[in-house]
């Protein structure tokens, strides 16, 4: 009797193993029919945890790098914003500065030294204040070669001499820049 029970239990275990193997073979056949290959691999708990840890580390490193790039980009944008924050106010003051320049020329023609000295002081104070806020003049003068990146040609006239062809003949309006950015291009006349 004992012999029969052992024999029966061995047969039962063999039948179960055969059923499992048949299921795996059926799955392999189905996968091969679909053009896929099924690899049955059992991972130990340690291997699974190691793989999960590696995946999480990779995700963390990528997220950290993305955050560092974000911080760097926003810091650069903030610095650029601070550099050009005064741009609208300075643009509004440029016509006043132009009027001061014209007034200086006319007052110097009048010959009144005390009036000229007083207006010069106010003019210099305004220029110094604007320069402290980052405003600089764009240096172009008659005789310089014309560069469309730094000046705006408003007209062309016949060149008074051959050496002024394609060059600046006259500066009609001064140009200004704020930091590295030109906020108003100088208006020039070029010779042809």
From TrEMBL:
Function: Participates actively in the response to hyperosmotic and heat shock by preventing the aggregation of stress-denatured proteins, in association with DnaK and GrpE. It is the nucleotide exchange factor for DnaK and may function as a thermosensor. Unfolded proteins bind initially to DnaJ; upon interaction with the DnaJ-bound protein, DnaK hydrolyzes its bound ATP, resulting in the formation of a stable complex. GrpE releases ADP from DnaK; ATP binding to DnaK triggers the release of the substrate protein, thus completing the reaction cycle.
PANTHER family: GRPE PROTEIN (PTHR21237), GRPE PROTEIN HOMOLOG, MITOCHONDRIAL (PTHR21237:SF23)
Species lineage: Bacteria, Pseudomonadati, Bacteroidota, Flavobacteriia, Flavobacteriales
Protein name according to UniProt: Protein GrpE
Family note: Belongs to the GrpE family.
Keyword terms of this UniProt record: Chaperone, Cytoplasm, Stress response
Gene3D superfamilies (UniProt xref): 3.90.20.20, Head domain of nucleotide exchange factor GrpE
Major place of residence: cytoplasm
Record GO terms (molecular function): adenyl-nucleotide exchange factor activity; protein homodimerization activity; protein-folding chaperone binding; unfolded protein binding
Protein's cellular compartments: Cytoplasm
Superkingdom of origin: Bacteria
Quaternary organization: Homodimer.
HAMAP family for this protein: GrpE
Protein's GO biological process: protein folding
Gene from which the chain derives: grpE
Entry GO terms, CC: cytoplasm
């Amino acid at each position: 009797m004992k012999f029969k029970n052992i024999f029966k239990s061995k047969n039962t275990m063999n039948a179960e193993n055969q059923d499992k193997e048949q299921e795996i073979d059926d799955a392999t056949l189905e996968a091969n029919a679909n053009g896929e290959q099924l690899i049955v691999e059992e991972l130990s708990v340690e291997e699974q945890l190691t793989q999960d840890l590696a995946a999480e580390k990779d995700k963390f490193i990528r997220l950290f790098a993305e955050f560092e790039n974000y911080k760097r980009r926003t810091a650069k944008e903030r610095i650029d914003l601070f550099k050009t924050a005064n741009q609208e106010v300075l643009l509004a003051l440029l016509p006043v500065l132009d009027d001061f320049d014209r007034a200086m020329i006319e007052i110097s023609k009048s010959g009144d030294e005390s009036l000229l000295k007083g207006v010069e002081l106010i003019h210099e104070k305004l220029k110094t204040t604007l320069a402290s806020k980052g405003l600089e003049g764009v240096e172009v003068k008659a005789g310089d070669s014309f560069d469309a990146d730094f000046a705006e040609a408003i007209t062309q006239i016949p060149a008074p001499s051959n050496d002024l062809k394609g060059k600046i003949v006259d500066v009609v309006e001064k140009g200004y820049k704020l930091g590295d950015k030109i906020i108003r291009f100088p208006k020039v006349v070029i010779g042809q």
